[in-house]
Every structure is written in structure tokens, then in C-alpha cells.
Amino acid sequence: ELKVEQNPLFLSMQEGKNYTIYCNYSTTSDRLYWYRQDPGKSLESLFVLLSNGAVKQEGRLMASLDTKARLSTLHITAAVHDLSATYFCAVDRRTSGTYKYIFGTGTRLKVLA
Amino acid sequence: SAVISQKPSRDICQRGTSLTIQCQVDSQVTMMFWYRQQPGQSLTLIATANQGSEATYESGFVIDKFPISRPNLTFSTLTVSNMSPEDSSIYLCSAAAYSQETQYFGPGTRLLVL
User: Fold this and answer.
1) pLDDT exceeding 90 applies to what percent of chain A?
2) A104 closest CA partner among A56, A13, A33, A17
3) Distance CA B38, CA A94 (A)
4) Residue A52 · residue A67 · CB < 8 Å
């Protein structure tokens, strides 16, 4: 069974600090996705990582993928309050002719002013 | 990207009744999915809505309880049948134009069953 785990589950950090969220998955996948969810809202796509070594950056967020280690990281640089949200990683999987996405446990980030 | 709308946005229902949730995409997409999300939890995939054929359900979800329709490439419905309070949750529709592309999510339907 494909499992996707994130750590930490909860993260409280001061504005201006740096931190990394980790996403580990249990079976082979070449693609990894990051999403953001604000409280009471739906999910917003942040990054799509399509191959080993892929790195994507948008503002204070940078995501990377190591398919050999089955690990993706989401690095936060100089955090600001607006980054407070829950972040999910997801991997995709094709089985028996169907295609689906498996989501991680989520990391709830709170940036303190 | 795709813009997805869902109706209703929220509802309060009585035990034993059924609710149909509609999901409309503004462009043709290959894949549509239905998820359930409890507050503070991750997403649980209910089923993949297949155009022109029966949906593919995940373990723990059955067609009698969650019938799904997908009559074309832009529309799908999820019915929550014979509801109980345990069905209270947020139901999310998502779509992807093709495999290996990111999903786009609808705003969700908040369901409370009394």
C-alpha cells in the first residue's frame, strides 16, 4: 500500500525564520505535488515536481524532489504570516488501469508575528 | 488550469436522506475525483469518476452508498445515500486535464447530518 507521510504535522515558527517540511513516500513515483489549504478553504496547487532532482521556487517557498530517497522537501525562507496554512504533498499512482493521487498527512504551519 | 464549481456549498440533512453534490469544470478534463476531508485531516479518496463507465471506488467506499455519475468530460455528481451523522464531512471534487498533471479542486461541500 502506498503511504505518504509528512513531518512535522504541526509547525509553529516565528516570522523571518527558515524551516523545511518533509514528505516521504513508500513506493516508486516520479512525480510529486504540493498543495496549500487555507482554513475553511479548498486546496490550491503550489508545485509539480516531475523528475528526480527537480526544484521549483515561488516566492519564499522552494520544493525539491529526490526520487531515489523517495523524499520531497518544502523549504520556507524568511517566513511571513501569510504563509500560515496547511501544506499537503501528494504522489500519483497507476494501478489496474486507473490513476489516482495519494495525499500526505498534511503539515499545519502557523507563522507567528 | 481549470476552474471547478460545486453545488451545494453546504447543507444540513436529516438521517436517512440522500444528497447529490454537483461538480462542474470549465474545461474538458480526463480525470475527475471525489474526496472526503474531515476537519483537520488529510484527504481520503472516495472514487475516480470515469466518463462513460462505472466509477472506480477505493477500499471502504461502495457504489450503493456513494453512487457517482459522469455523463461527460466536464461534469460529475456524487450522491451520499441513506446518510448518518458519520457522513458529516467536507466533500471535495477535483479534476486533472490528464495524468501526471496537478489536480484542481472545487470549493467543497460542507455536509452536516443530524
Assistant:
1) 80
2) A33
3) 26
4) yes
* Averaged pLDDT, A75-91: 97
Q: How far apart are CA A24 and CA A35, in angstroms?
A: 15
- The x, y and z cell numbers of residue A15, run together, are 516570522
Q: Which residue has the cell 509547525?
A: A11
CB contact under 8 A, B107 and A42: yes
Q: Dihedral angle at the C-alpha atoms of B79, B81, B83, B89, nearest 10 degrees?
A: -30
Nearest Cβ partner for A99 among B42, B43, B99: B99
- Say if B53 is an interface residue toward chain A (CB within 8 Å): no
Positive/negative CA dihedral, B59, B67, A103, B113: negative
**Chain A residues whose beta carbon lies within 8 Å of the beta carbon of residue B106:** 42
Q: Which residues of B touch A42 (CB under 8 A)?
A: 92, 105-108
A95 touches chain B (CB under 8 A): no
**Side-chain half-sphere exposure of A33, counting CA atoms within 13 A:** 20
Task: For strands A85-95 and A107-112, give the pairing.
Answer: antiparallel
Residue B58: what pLDDT? 93
Is B33 near chain A, with CB under 8 Å?
Answer: yes
